[in-house]
Amino acid sequence: MLPLWLGAVPSGIAFGFTARHVGLDAFEAQAMSFLVFSAPAQMATIDLLVRGVSPVLPVLVTLSVNAQLALISLACGRILRPGIWPAAAVAFLLTEGSFAVASAAPPLTLASLAGAASSMYLAWNLGTMLGLASADRLPALTRFGLDFVIPLTFIAVLGRWLREPPARHPVVVSALAATLLLLVLPSTVATLCAAISGALAGTVQFRDRESMWNGPSS
Amino acid sequence: MERPVILTIVAMGLALYLVRLSGLLLSRISMHRNLENAFKGLAPATLAALVVASLLAHPQELGWRAPAAVAALAVAIRWPRMEVCLATGMLVYLVLRWTDVGM
Questions:
Q1: How confident is the model over B34-70, as pLDDT tens digits?
Q2: pLDDT at residue B91 is higher than 80
Q3: B43 and A68 in contact by Cβ < 8 A?
Q4: Which residue of B has its CA nearest to A178?
């Protein structure tokens, strides 16, 4: 469980700190951690929320960066075969990280998954709270280009994915497509089109691989 | 900022909850292999597109941010720890910015 805490608390601090400085208020930032509970989705949508874009885009980005959760959830379901109410409760807290930790000590049970997931949820929200509190005490950092932390967070996650060859195709194709599409399309449309083209390009590479690729823990 | 932000956050949470719940409840279905592969590639592809969009959104700082992003990526691939990646990227960015190199 310790690795989960070591990852979740600092990441939560980074999120809370960044969210506050980029322009979300403390209530909104903490509400994201309470209700969304996804580091990539929260970091990816801070800027969109602050810019006041259509609500559809943050929701689509949230779903896109968490597409893997559908597979994790499916894997959990196949192993655990939970009833409706236990599934409804565990689903709220399910992450790749908690699934990985709970699976590391077989057999995977609903109780072990719920324990790992709720522990990570507490750590993430505690980290967010600490980040928000520290942001209010360090206001001068805003002029040092702190918004750059957001793409750096994506890069940190990408780096872990890129250690696995199957992710390279989608990343390269998506980055190239985004570079070209951003010249001719609005930013939001270009980003979504590039992401979809990367995902489609990735199917070509994934198809040729026998091994199951599970991606990184978050 | 407009107040409907909190409604958008609720919608994000609800959408993600449904994704998390769907697999648990629909575990008996089998997903087409191509769709499964597209799901695997969508998350890294989305993040890559967001990084490019973020870099190009600040053309006046591209000479500082692009090298910092490359350095951060190299570190992230070698050492999969978020704080090391963030520190490297911010350090390169701030050094280039303060020394005015790359512009």
A1: 777 777 777 788 788 889 988 998 888 899 999 999 9
A2: yes
A3: yes
A4: B49
Q: What is the ipTM of this complex?
A: 0.80
| Residue A146, domain extent | 1-162
Q: pTM of the prediction?
A: 0.68
Interface test with B, best of A155, A203, A211, A218 (most B CBs within 10 A): A155
Measured in whole angstroms, the distance separating CA B6 from the mean position of its chain's CA atoms is 22
Angle, helices A56-65 vs A187-207, to 10°: value is 20
Does the beta-carbon distance from B46 to A65 stay under 8 Å? Answer: yes
Same domain? For A155 and A171 the reply is no
Query: Quick one: A153 and A169 in the same domain?
Result: no
Is the same domain home to A136 and A180? no
Residues A149 and A182 in one domain: no
pLDDT tens readout for residues A9-54: 877 888 898 888 888 899 999 999 999 999 888 988 988 888 877 8
A170 with B65: Cβ contact below 8 A: no
| Cα angle for residues B57, B71, B50 (degrees, 5° grid) | 30
Residue spans of alpha helices (H) in chain A:
2-22, 26-35, 39-51, 56-65, 67-80, 84-91, 96-103, 110-137, 149-162, 168-184, 187-207
Q: Would you call B50 and A191 a contact, using CB atoms and an 8 Å cutoff? A: yes
Q: What is the pLDDT of residue B10?
A: 95
Residue B102 is predicted with a pLDDT of: 58
Number of folded domains that form chain A: 2
> Which residues on chain B are in Cβ contact (under 8 Å) with A41?
12, 16
The residue among A123, A138, A162 that closes a domain is: A162
Mutate to test the interface with B, among A49, A90, A121, A152 (most CBs of B within 10 A): A152
Whole-number Å distance between alpha carbons of B2 and A4:
35
